[in-house]
Specification:
Helix content is about 45%, strand content about 15%.
Length: about 120
């Protein structure tokens, strides 16, 4: 069996999404903190979202890497382009929201009741 001369690159964002889907399945998620009213959870989540959106917008976009040329499993040559800047900013926003909510004592868990 011949080894590919060019290593295959998988998009890290795709694998993150796949991992999250496997971890949580199809269940909708919600933030939870014992003894906290829904109004307070909504207020904290809104505040964390606004802060994360502002912080992510201020982050300087990294220099975009050029497309990489790799071979697919069938041996065809393909060009893989890096994720779009909006995708990177969205992922950063979500990470900042998660950290903010966790710093406030919340945990992300499957929704137990209808919204």
């Amino acid at each position: 069996m011949q080894k590919d001369p060019v290593p295959r690159m998988e998009p890290p964002l795709l694998w993150t999404c796949v991992g999250m889907a496997l971890l949580f399945g199809c269940a909708p998620l919600q933030w939870y903190k014992a003894g906290t009213a829904q109004e307070d959870i909504t207020r904290d989540q809104t505040s964390c979202t606004a802060t994360a959106r502002n912080e992510a917008a201020l982050q300087r976009a990294p220099i975009r890497a050029p497309a990489q040329v790799v071979s697919d499993p069938q041996g065809r040559i393909v060009a893989i382009r890096p994720a779009a800047a909006d995708s990177e900013r969205f992922a950063l926003e979500q990470d900042l929201i998660r950290r903010c909510m966790q710093n406030l004592g919340y945990v992300l868990q499957p929704r137990t009741s209808p919204p």
